[in-house]
Amino acid sequence: MSGQSDRSGRRRDARTRVDAWAGTLPRVQRRVGWAALAGLAGLLFGLTAVGVSWSAGTSIAHHDPLGAAEAAGLGALTLVFWWWIALGAWNRYRPPIDPATGRPERAEEPVGPWGIVGRVLVVVLVLAFVGGGGWLAWEARQATRAAEDVRHRAEREASRRELTVADVDRARAAELTWAGDQEGPDPYDQLLEVEGAYVSDVSVDGNRAAILLRLPDSPPCVVVDIDADDLISTRLSNACT
């Protein structure tokens, strides 16, 4: 009987020690909200990468290296932000485990007043970035659609007028004279009239010419190119000066 009592006592002591040791392990409560935030940030990271690649590629195709550089710079900052949000949220949902001890490297700590303030600020920042990014994307899309409409109208009108490099050169010379006294109509307006835009500047380089059309919400702007054979083509550009 005494032997059984001793064994039972030792088992109870062992369970007590295990329970006490287990109680020292930091408890990590996985909150679904952190996982949802990490997933949302990861999705927005991917969408931003696609959008930046498309914007930079479009600018390069339109011979606008400045626009490509601006898109790449702003995109890089946005990508860093979403990566920081995604990684931080995932580490809070599933903190890394120390292989030596098998314990989480960071224990879940009680949320104090400053912790609540910090989380509210994170939510505000995320909503601001999402809302601001969506609004900017919508504005950019509307501006691009308007510029595309003007581009098509400008190409048709320039072709109808059969504009040549010589026409652009004469308009440039007349503009210099008109800028001094501003008598009569603007030579640029007479050169090319397009609904929704106006001629902001022209350039002549040897046997090639270009007409820059600005919209009310430019950039982007529309460029009418005339080559050495007086063939007309149009393109969009973010370089509107």
Could you characterize what this model shows?
The chain is built from six helices and four strands. It has 241 residues and is of the alpha+beta class. Among the domains are: 30-107; 149-237, Nuclear Transport Factor 2, Chain: A, CATH 3.10.450. It has a four-stranded antiparallel β-sheet. Helix 2 packs antiparallel against helix 3 (65-93). The longest helix is centred in the middle third of the chain and has 49 residues, at 113-161. It is elongated.
List keywords for this structure.
Nuclear Transport Factor 2, Chain: A, 4-stranded antiparallel sheet, 63% helix, alpha+beta, 241 residues
Give the overall shape: elongated
Strand and helix order: HHHHHHEEEE
Number of contiguous helices: 6
* Fold-level CATH name of the domain at 149-237: Nuclear Transport Factor 2, Chain: A
Question: How large, in whole angstroms, is the Cα Rg?
Answer: 33 Å
CATH architecture of the domain at 149-237: Roll
Please list the strands of the largest sheet in the order they lie side by side. 1-2-3-4
Q: Using the coordinates above, name the CATH class of the domain at 149-237.
A: Alpha Beta
Total beta-strand segments = 4
Distance between the termini: 100 Å
Mean pLDDT: 77
Q: Spans with pLDDT under 50 lasting ≥5 residues? A: 14-28
Structural class computed from helices and strand pairing: alpha+beta
Largest sheet: 4 strands, antiparallel
How much helicity do the residues have?
Answer: 55-70%
What's the short story on this structure?
With 241 residues, this protein is of the alpha+beta class.
